[in-house]
Design brief:
With 230 residues, the chain is mainly α. It has one domain: Glycerol uptake facilitator protein, CATH 1.20.1080.10. The chain contains 10 helices and no strands. Helix 2 packs antiparallel against helix 7, helix 3 runs antiparallel to helix 4 and helix 3 packs across helix 6.
Length: 230
């Protein structure tokens, strides 16, 4: 239990940092693509080298699901991680909301909190089906990369950088389309705070990343399984 608690605290802190800096940059810069992409990517890099050796630095329920499918963690551990990640996301958004309230220029109603969306809430006006497809594909790429780079101990020293850069280029494509989720916890927290359309649409950004994650996990498992010699 002590070990699980330590890992959960790390996931809580890591997710809070990711959401605060990622969603915060998205909100304050008006969803500017490069700064927001870098904020999410660099948050992953920073946290990977701080908490990676303790919890693995999932800070994303979709990552934890992939690890569960590939038997890298138990159902009990997955539940601990999931709760910690969601709570961390809410604390990160609460901190962002509080910071924005201290400025007369940062109006939450106008700038939002980095929430995801489709239709009128998408810069490219992507419809619901398009948003689902985007999130499934982007999450697949992100999770498949994570599984690949973390499966080889020789790549351990650069894993955080590779994963962070992958999240960055995933955001570069995804921000104009859906705001880029690939992380259910990161999407749920701002949607709950904003309510309205953001909350009505958030199911897409919870379901699609989990689907993309599951596909990536099963594909990786199939392509990398050891063949039994006769």
């Amino acid at each position: 239990m002590k070990e699980e608690l330590k890992k959960s605290i790390c996931e809580f802190i890591g997710t809070a940092v990711l959401v605060l800096f990622g969603c915060g940059t998205a909100a304050i810069t008006g969803g500017s693509i490069v700064p927001t992409s870098l904020a999410f990517g660099l948050s992953i890099v920073a946290m990977a080298y701080v908490i990676g050796n303790i919890s693995g630095c999932h800070i994303n329920p979709a990552v934890s699901l992939a690890m569960l499918i590939n038997k890298k963690m138990t159902i009990k551990e997955f539940c601990f991680y999931l709760v910690a990640q969601v709570l961390g996301a809410f604390v990160g958004i609460a901190a962002l909301y509080g910071l924005m309230q201290t400025s007369e220029l940062l109006n939450v109603g106008q700038l939002g909190l980095g929430a995801n969306g489709f239709g009128e809430n998408s810069l490219a006006n992507v419809n619901m089906i398009g948003a689902i497809a985007v999130e499934v594909v982007l999450t697949f790429v992100f999770i498949y990369t994570i599984l690949g780079v973390t499966s080889d101990r020789k790549k351990a020293s650069v894993a955080g950088i590779v994963i962070g850069l992958t999240l960055t280029f995933v955001h570069i494509l995804g921000i104009p389309l859906t705001g880029t989720s690939v992380n259910p916890a990161r999407s749920l927290a701002p949607a709950v705070f904003l309510c309205g359309e953001a909350l009505k649409q958030v199911w897409v950004f919870i379901v699609a990343p989990f689907v993309g994650s599951a596909i990536a996990a099963f594909v990786f498992k199939f392509l990398n399984k050891e063949e039994v010699s006769e």
